[in-house]
Amino acid sequence: MAANDDLPIVLCVDDERIILMSLKMELKDRFSDRARIETADSGEDGLAILRQCVDEGDDVALIISDQRMPGGMQGDRFLEEAHKVVPGARTILLTGYADIDAVKNAVNRADLYRYIPKPWEPEDFALTVSKAIDAHLQARLVVEKQEQIERLTVAMVTALENVNLINDENTGLHIKRVGAYSEFLARKAGRDEIFCRRIGLYASLHDIGKVGVPREILVKPGRYTPEEFEIMKSHVLVAERMLKGAGIDEMVRNIALYHHERWDGSGYMRGLSGARTPIEARIVAIADVFDALITERPYKPALPVSEAVEFITRSSGSQFDPGLVALFLDHLDEAIALKARIDAEYALESAAPLPG
Ligand SMILES: [Fe+2]
Predict the structure, then answer these.
(1) Which of 104-108, 206-210, 238-242 has the lowest mean pLDDT?
(2) Closest Cα to residue 258, out of 242, 237, 241, 244?
(3) Starting at the edge strand that comes first in sequence, how are the strands of the sheet with 9-13 ordered?
(4) CATH superfamily placement of domain 9-141
(5) pTM of the entire predicted model
(6) Reduced to 3 states, what is the DSSP secondary structure of residue 102?
(7) Which of 103, 151, 248, 349 is deepest in the core (most CB within 10 A)?
(8) 3-class SS of residue 178
């Protein structure tokens, strides 16, 4: 690997070879320690280079394109396509004309970073390129930090899930399915991507407080006595204590604490009703009960989906948020497909030979 292989790429596109070469020399002189400079003499070639960069995992920081390239793709059109290939890269359009339409297109469709009229003033040009590279690196750093936090969160959630599994191995696939149904229902409810990903991750921790419930109660076949039921209910309070720390996402706390609240206010532990229960907990409540009904437990056989649907429908407006129930039932096929996929993945994992 060459020493500068880790540097981000700056791609210059111009159909006039002399201009392209002088652009390359100018950029190399000033930025060879901060970027790798690539060139293309047409928009088509530029796109081919960008696709190759994506395939090879190269980071493209900046694309500089001439507007007027007779016989081929024009600059604004090229930047529009380039933006689709590498949406994170900054774009600069060079034009010798006051071509306001092209600039407008590039701003609207390629998220244009700057427009530079030809001939450019070298110092201004260098400053603009420098700022574009800085802006790109800054944005990349933010994304890397977010990914790092996400990886750490997934690792912590997995560790907590494993704690649950030690105590009650029957919940293994249940918590995965509840995560999947919850994410799917959140999407149907029109929540944004971040919300959906968070709920998909955190829903699996809804019963984390069961780590504080004696194992003989967790796996007891048959119905609970009133005393046992009180102990079982306490898993919500155990979770509240576990998830109290600063920096823990409020959503995970809301899910663990409120997933047994009911729409009519008769649930536990706070007796919240209607939309006073956070939506993430109302979503998980449906996902949790639906999956529990259609799967076998030590104390009950699996119900057919039709009976589970009947129960959920009957409980709409009393136990469950009626709007969410309607959405869930409207897309029931997708929930069933999710269950089949997760169960099949597990069957494959179980069938795989153990390493060593
Ligand atoms: Fe629970």
Answers:
(1) 104-108
(2) 237
(3) 36-40, 9-13, 60-66, 90-95, 114-117
(4) Response regulator (3.40.50.2300)
(5) 0.67
(6) helix
(7) 103
(8) helix
